[in-house]
Write a structure and sequence with these properties.
Elements: H1 10-15, H2 18-26, H3 32-39, H4 47-67, H5 79-85, H6 94-114, H7 124-129, H8 136-145, H9 158-165, H10 181-184
C-alpha cells in the first residue's frame, strides 16, 4: 500500500466523484493493465508527492499537446502471457510471445522518447522511463519471426526458409500418390 495515499471512506469518494474521475481517466489508458492501475489509484496527501505527481501530469499534458498519445492504442493485454512464465518449463503459445513482444516494443519506444536531455536534471517522466528495460531488439526479432496468427514466419531462420521453399536442387520432389483403384475404373 502507498504510505502517501489517503484512504477515503465510500461516502467521501462518492461526494468527490473520485471513482467517476478515475473511470474517465482510465478510458484513456492504452492497455488493460494501465486501465486497472488507474482504477486502483488512491488520493495522495503528502505535499511533496502531490507536487511530484503534478509535475508528471504537466509533462504528460505537454507531450499530449504535441503528439496526441504517449503509447499507441490497441496494445494486447500482456497478463495472459505473463502468467505461464511463472512456471518453469512452460512454453508460451507463439501468439502470447508476439503479444509480449508488441508490449515490450511499445515500452522501449516510450522509454526512448522520454529519456532525453540532461542526465543531471531528468524530467519526472524520464525518471520513470529509465526503469523500463530496453527490449527493442528482442521484440523486433520476435515480431519478425512470429506471424500475427501465431505461425512462424519463413524469415524466422535461414533453415526454416530453406525447408519451406521446398526440395533443393539435389533432391527429388515426392511422387504423387496413385489414384484409388475404384476411381480409375470406368463406371
Amino acid at each position: 500500500m502507498n504510505p502517501h495515499a489517503l484512504d477515503l471512506d465510500p461516502d467521501s469518494r462518492q461526494a468527490l466523484e473520485f471513482d467517476a474521475l478515475l473511470r474517465v481517466v482510465a478510458e484513456q489508458a492504452a492497455t488493460a493493465p494501465g486501465t486497472d492501475r488507474v482504477l486502483a489509484l488512491a488520493p495522495v496527501h503528502h505535499p511533496q508527492r502531490v507536487r511530484e505527481e503534478h509535475e508528471r501530469v504537466h509533462e504528460v499534458r505537454e507531450i499530449l499537446a504535441a503528439e496526441a498519445r504517449l503509447v499507441s492504442g490497441g496494445l494486447p493485454d500482456p497478463r495472459p502471457a505473463l502468467a505461464p512464465l511463472a512456471v518453469e518449463g512452460v512454453a508460451l503459445d507463439p501468439r502470447q510471445l508476439r503479444d509480449l513482444a508488441a508490449v515490450a516494443r511499445a515500452a522501449s519506444d516510450l522509454r526512448r522518447r522520454l529519456v532525453v536531455g540532461d542526465e543531471a536534471s531528468p524530467s519526472r517522466l524520464g525518471e520513470l522511463a529509465r526503469r523500463l528495460p530496453d527490449l527493442a531488439a528482442e521484440a523486433r526479432r520476435v515480431l519478425g519471426s512470429v506471424e500475427p496468427d501465431g505461425r512462424l514466419a519463413d524469415e524466422a531462420s535461414a533453415e526454416l526458409a530453406r525447408l519451406r521453399r521446398g526440395p533443393g536442387p539435389c533432391r527429388r520432389a515426392p511422387e504423387p500418390a496413385p489414384a484409388p483403384a475404384d476411381a480409375a475404373a470406368p463406371g
